[in-house]
Amino acid sequence: MEKYLLNLDEEMPKYLQISKHIEKLINEKKVKDGERLPAIRTLAKFLDVNTVTIVSAYKLLQQKGYALQKMGSGTYAKGKEERKNFLKQYSNIYKKVSGESLKGYIDFSGETTCSEFFPVETFKKVLNDVLDRDGAEAFVYQSAFGYEGLRKSINNHFWDKRIDTDNIMIVSGAQQGIDIVAKALINVNDNIAIEKPTYSGALNVFKGRRANIFEIDMLRDGIDIGAFKKILKKNKINCFYIMSYFQNPTGSTYSMQKKREILNLAEEYDFYILEDDYLSELIFDKDMEYKSFKSLDTNDRVIYVKSFSKIFLPGIRLGYLVSPYKFKDRIQSSKINTDITTSSLMQRALDLYIKEGYWKDHMKNLNEAYKERYNLMKNYIEEILKDKVEVNMPGGGLHFYLKISDKINVDCLELFYKCKKEKVIITPGVLFYKNNFDGEKYFRLGFSQTNVNDIEKGLNIINRILRSFTS
Questions:
Q1: Is 390 exposed, middle or buried (0-12, 13-18, 19+ CB in 10 A)?
Q2: Would you call 77 exposed, middle or buried from its count of C-beta atoms within 10 A (0-12, 13-18, 19+)?
Q3: Who has the most CB within 10 Å: 164, 323, 361, 390?
Q4: Contact in structure between 192 and 212 (CB atoms under 8 Å)
């Protein structure tokens, strides 16, 4: 107990001093990862403070990721290194179980559509048609901005010719699109806003630009607008990265009201919106309307990024970007500096695939197949896991984001390892936060790579593991 002794300063809140002291002990490894902190009454008596002070100190430690409360057991220390090491471990673990060995696992970590749904014969026909039509020309480098035919098809079929084709740029997936925009528009110490939690790939791009990152909590219908306004009033925000449909990882979709309000704020506070339109093709809720931020944008404030890879096939690295006229040259220059061009043959093939109506048919087939999986998981979560997790039913997309009940004495890291031991792969929530101390009670379950039988089997395993930690 002696290591917890400190002289309390009357000018600073006592709970804050105690919290800082314990945080220091954890960082210096004088209190080890997983070590039980003193009981509230014991520490209160030792430091001659009331129990409310200790409760407040422990709560602050939990918020900052330095402690974990286990119901009926006490509060336990968690160090920074544990989280940092886990990020490397998760990456290495996933590499080891990928490829052929992944077939022995039930994979709930997938973010892209399953290869079994890819129309191989149809796409083979399209490729042959392109080669017969264009010959060797199909392999010639295109403009760095993309094959003109595909850019026109995107405008015609997805935008009803409402945008300028010259503002459409073909990219190698959404990740490259985000990276190109970040290089063009974000400098060191620029202020950017992101959703909390958010897509880890985008988060890593912004960290790499050494930007000041402001997080806004996600709610069921989009970000907390009130919290966003407070940030905007105090800080000059340059860019706001946003996922409009089935946000990764929360599954939340923005309401029409919030879309319009955020667009108005962009004009009022002079910032730009980087919209990542993620899996909006997979809408299972018949009452949900599709309207992107870009389609509602009357002030040219939205930079729109769309990936074909996630919804079509990951190996076909294609997507597109629509830039505001103001940034067109800067973003195009950033693309040129990133790579020379995106595969000419694949661009021509996708162009023909869209023109021939195959894209529309494929999306219809995907919706039917994934709606079955979605409903299976939704019903299981509602009926079997209802007392162990909390969840926002997304109404579409390819995943669910679950919060572990306070009654369950386990965090997402321990749950991940327990599941892996039983050949089930989940995605821990800590991967989606700027501060990896957040998200410890959350995990994501994707159903894109998992068939109906494996979904049931995997969910039963997760249910059994969670039940074993019930207090």
A1: middle
A2: buried
A3: 323
A4: yes
Q: CA nearest 349: which of 164, 130, 70, 63?
A: 130
> Nearest Cα to 320, choosing from 368, 277, 378, 360?
277
Q: Which of 85-89, 126-130, 181-185, 318-322 has the lowest mean pLDDT?
A: 85-89
Q: What confidence tens digit (pLDDT) does each residue in 32-64 have?
A: 877 889 999 999 998 999 999 999 998 888 877
- The per-residue pLDDT for 71 is 64
Q: Give the angle 186-190-194 at the CA atoms, nearest 5°.
A: 80
Q: Which CATH architecture best describes the domain 13-78?
A: Orthogonal Bundle (1.10)
Just give the CATH number of 140-356: 3.40.640.10
Beta pairing partners, 390: 403
C-alpha distances in angstroms, 410 versus 19, 71, 88, 441?
23, 10, 21, 8
Cα 9 to Cα 13, 15, 18, 44, distances in angstroms: 8, 11, 10, 16
Residue whose pair of structure tokens reads 């030792």 in the numeric block: 46
Predicted TM-score (pTM) of the model is 0.82
State the fold for domain 81-108+361-468. Aspartate Aminotransferase, domain 1 (3.90.1150)
The mean pLDDT value of the chain amounts to 89
Structure confidence by residue, pLDDT tens digits, 341-399 = 678 899 999 999 999 999 999 999 999 999 999 999 999 999 999 899 999 899 999 99
